[in-house]
């Protein structure tokens, strides 16, 4: 049975990934900080949301409170996966923050630090914690590391230069990680979603003073918002053995995003 660790798991795309994996036979360690961040003006996932997710799959999902900014905490979560489930085959980095709403030259270090410490360093920390466990799997192994980037990694977005930069960094990190993993049997990829119906999109709408997140739908060729489960489908495919030809690249699960 395959084992995954998913960060940012309390809600949104992270929670959708946990659900998809659990319903297709995976054992999952679901990780979330379960606390708000004073650097951003909106509430984050809660302990109750994470616990409810795990309770839906009592035999296959373990919930762990840990912050991706804390490498030791992630290493403990990986150790739990190995202890309880026997190893680790996939790691999904879905934890991220949204900040912005003003030109780069008017933004401050707090905003930049929030975006990079969670959305970039947090992914690097997950790789540092998870890859050694995947390498402990015997050859031939089929390990997978999947990081959530964004359509913002590929398009400049108004008043979101810091977010653009952080998500572009995710793509670069994954490309470098995949090169480091050459010949190991472990693939590293990024998924770039478009506008997806999540709490983070609601926070983005507030930055733009939009009354309704549905206004973002006009920027996608599908002419609607994506649902978290649609993006999770792409992520979970990349976690599967069938994705063995895909590494060091980006899958654009963005609904044809065109700002």
UniProtKB/TrEMBL annotation:
This is SDR family oxidoreductase. Belongs to the short-chain dehydrogenases/reductases (SDR) family. Keywords: Oxidoreductase. Signal peptide: none annotated. The keyword Oxidoreductase applies. CDD domains: SDR_c. Pfam families: adh_short_C2.
